[in-house]
Fold:
Amino acid sequence: MLSGCVGTPGTRLREGPAVAEEIRAEMVANVWKVVASPGDSVSEGDTLVILESMKMEIPVLAESDGRVAQLAVNEGDVVQEGDLIAVIE
Structure:
C-alpha cells in the first residue's frame, strides 16, 4: 500500500468567509473504498477514500483540517486524472 496524498495540491476557493479545498485525482483509478462522509470533521492526513490502480491501494488524504463539504465519488466509480474527489471546508 502506498502512502501519501493522491489529490493534487488543494485548489482553494472563496465562498464567503469559508475557504474550500478541492481534492482531485492524480491518476485514472477505481474508487475501492469511501472512508469519509459529507459533514465529517477531518484532520490533515486523514484518509478520505482509497483508490485502486494496478492492484495497488492508494489512499487519498485530507490536506488540511476541516469538514467534508462534498464527496464527489462512490465506491466502484472510476476517476480520471483531475476529477473531483472531495471538497474540504
